[in-house]
Design brief:
This protein has 263 residues and is mainly α. The longest helix is centred in the middle third of the chain and has 20 residues. It is globular. The model has no long low-confidence stretch (mean pLDDT 93).
Length: 263
Amino acid sequence: MPAARRWTKNELFIALNLYHKLRFGQMHGRQPAIIDLAKKLGRSSSSLAMKLCNFASLDPALKLRGIKGLAGASKLDRTVWQEFHETPNESIPASEEELRKLFAVPSYGSIEVNPQEGIKIKKKSAPEITETLATVKQRRGQDYFREAVLNNFGGRCGITGLDLRELLIASHILPWRTHPQERLNVRNGLALSRLHDAAFDTGLIAFDESLRLILSPRLKKKISSSAIKTNFADFVGLALNLPDDAQLPEPQFLSVHRKAFGL
């Protein structure tokens, strides 16, 4: 029997990108996104799923939840994991770019990791101006953050359950501009509809320490409006809806958001 092909550093780098866009319960060989990436890497889906579970054994967030992952992470696995997470603002956009190259995504296109449908390429109109490297790097990071956050929430708005990805936003709890160290942290993200993203961003709504929706005094004054009742008041006191194996938003970040708007 021929020896198993060793994983390269670049393959592991790309696999880590997918790792952070899936929840632990989705890391199996029948998962559509895993199947799609495995084909591009020239590997079996079971091999890639096993590698993701090896990474899970190195994940401190899973360890805190009592999830051990799969033993057998190699020295290279550990090295790539460490390098990936030491400088996320550099490594994550770079890994997103490598994923795009693997799937031959045009510079003006986008790539979507959808756990239900697999990895999809979406073409857009060619840009009229040339983007700088800094702009491209920022956009790659934003693309990664969007996919990771939406998938963490099961592809649904955490308040209403709306499941049309075109109408969902990966909202930053701590703003992108003022908290660069948390820009790509999935625990700094909420999957919200475009309406609720705007309300959260302007402090019209917030979430308490138990992730329950609270309204600002300004919004409460409008509660007699049927639109306000349907879209906001009906959800007051209900906790954000996330899958059981999702990473929960960081409570301290939500506290900072509340204090910023006096809620």
